[in-house]
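Quarterly update from the structural biology core.
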Amino acid sequence: MCFSSNSSYSRNSGYLKQTHGFYGMPLSEKRLHEYRNPDNDPRGPWESKPWKAGTGQSGTRYRIVSPTGKIFDEEWLGSEQTYKQLLAQGIIYFPKGGDGLPRKKYYLSERQTEGQPAHNFWVHKEYGSNQEASSELENLFGEANVYSNPKPSRLITAISKMTTSKSNAMLDFFAGSGTTGHAVINLNREDGGRRKFILVEMANYFDTVLLPRIQKVMYAPDWKHGRPKRLPTKEEVERTPRLVKVLCLKGYEDALHNLTTEETLKREEPRATAHKERLGPDAYRVCYLVRLPLEASASMLNLSALEHPFDYTIEILTEDGPRVETVDLIETFNFLYGLHVERLETWVNEGDKRTYRVVKGRNRDGKRVLVLWRGIEGLEPVVERAFLEAKLKTEGPFDEMLINGDTATPGFRSLDGLFKRLLEEDER
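Predicted structure, tokenized:
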């Protein structure tokens, strides 16, 4: 892998640094010794680079007189006004006792803050290799070749240091074996950062390699032959994420368009057969079999089933017959409503041992929203009201409070009709 530090491209000057942040690599011991202070500059040690424009560089032509009276008529990197300002500040240096071409000073204090540009070549000794990455996975899983050509976590850690602050998020659209997540966890443990990572992967090794890898790295920092080599220190535990959210996207819009009922299944059979003949015996169109009243099927939501929101299922029709899958109604509602989730909690009403799934967040207008989900079977409105009113005294206030089904608790409104409407709008 090769990166060039000689050129950078952005839509406007300073864009990369100001809006996305770009943090240089820490200076090596060799580079540190290159900074000196022969003229006792109060700003501290410095190095210098030519002020004269080099070959292929455009500049501004004007005359410069050295301290010894020597005249240089060249093209320079900055304007004459900029040069005079730098000269007055003591940032322009004339070598050879004042007889040489002017050079601009660059101070160690600035470099230590900003870091140095990345090396053109990412050498194995400093940033790891594919062999090291394979060994890293082998130690995690206790077997070889669980993933082809992984990247070393040391490499991604170095890139993370350059491109993120301690509170940024790393997004990897092609997550592969999960090296980015591994690197971010390690880096947070190292410097106390609160970086987050978002990994996107569609291949089967998401379940077989990526997810188990993140679980293992969260549990312990060092592994050998599939077993933890050591457990994390107390400080490392504090710097390790407690929760990683896994989202499985299944082409929701396609699913809506492929809904069918038993009544239409027979009518669909000729089209499915023609589709299979055209694309081959292994091809088929996915259909979702719903057994709902006609008026409910148009909304793609069985409102009566919301009495048991944690067990909501839908049948997916495949060539091998129907298969039942659970639907995460809470996550679906959050997405359709545009809710920015800030906190997920579980409340238990000791009065009737009922469990409430609690979502706290903000809607698109920035208003605080509380959404409650619970099973309704055997619900006693008086018991629930006493429990929820007591909770709201310490949890509130909220601009909007929603709950599945009905409730006698003042301030709440049922989300059922809203959920149905949102699904209809999403289909259109």
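The mean pLDDT is 82.
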